[in-house]
């Protein structure tokens, strides 16, 4: 698999990242009875060439990090070959008792969250720490202090954000002495906001790697999916899927390879985060395919609700 540099860091990662949020079972569903499925998925992704694995402290209530730690122990030497990214900042309802779901970028919570992630993963450091969703009460000075503390303690190598608006990235980076190397946002042929709201422009200008979560629109754009998935009924993917299937037939590739190639074609260096736990689907996503300028616009035209002006 091809590689890319994360932002202005020295970290070199696979062109695609592997998303670990399903390792303990699908969100909203009971967790897997054992960790075997999750471990198999991690090892299949590593065998397919994925070197960046994306986690978060809340995925599976922390269980996904534990399963990834089990995979590391099952494959001696794997830790030295991969980059581990995790996220913090979302607090569930009832933490503490009576509290609502909220976002917390206090220095204490950031540092404690990292300690918890390291304990569950069984590793001494994270390669990348991201703030998961913007805290309306974010104090950039306090966040910067937590980042420096974690970097100086050897617990985190690089830092980034997730789901941040352009203005929020600017506000934090203006104060933080450490470069923000990634901004993980939703981007796919069914979610084009990053093309229009300045996110990708900022990533280009500031050398921030945009990581695309849900690059296949929750699986809707994958070849093995037919019809709408539960919870995705607000999407109307028919035009996009029709164009993907037409081009896939002409070019001799799969629907998901084209959908990922559409992201990879952007000069900002988008890193799609692929999250299947099916080893066959993982290997299929890792297939390398390049998309022409004209075909890129065929797809974006199909994805827009109105023609290009």
Fold topology:
Elements: E1 3-5, E2 12-14, E3 17-19, H1 36-47, E4 52-54, H2 63-74, E5 83-88, E6 90-91, E7 102-103, H3 107-121, E8 126-131, H4 140-152, E9 156-162, H5 166-175, E10 180-186, H6 193-196, H7 199-206, E11 209-213, H8 238-251, H9 255-264, E12 271-274, H10 279-285, H11 293-303
Parallel strand pairs: 3-4, 3-12, 4-5, 5-8, 8-9, 9-10, 10-11, 11-12
Antiparallel strand pairs: 1-2, 6-7
Helix and strand composition category = alpha/beta
The separation of the N and C termini measures 37 Å
Task: State the shape.
Answer: globular
Mean pLDDT: 92
C-alpha-based Rg, rounded: 19 Å
CATH class annotation: Alpha Beta
Beta-strand content estimate: 15-25%
Number of domains: 1
Largest sheet: 8 strands, parallel, barrel
Write up this protein.
The chain has helices at 36-47, 63-74, 107-121, 140-152, 166-175, 193-196, 199-206, 238-251, 255-264, 279-285, 293-303; strands at residues 3-5, 12-14, 17-19, 52-54, 83-88, 90-91, 102-103, 126-131, 156-162, 180-186, 209-213, 271-274. The chain is an alpha/beta fold and 309 residues long. The strands form three sheets. An eight-stranded parallel β-barrel has the order 3-4-5-8-9-10-11-12, surrounded by four helices. A two-stranded antiparallel ribbon has the order 1-2. Strand 8 (126-131), helix 4 (140-152) and strand 9 (156-162) form a beta-alpha-beta unit. The radius of gyration is 19 Å and the shape is globular.
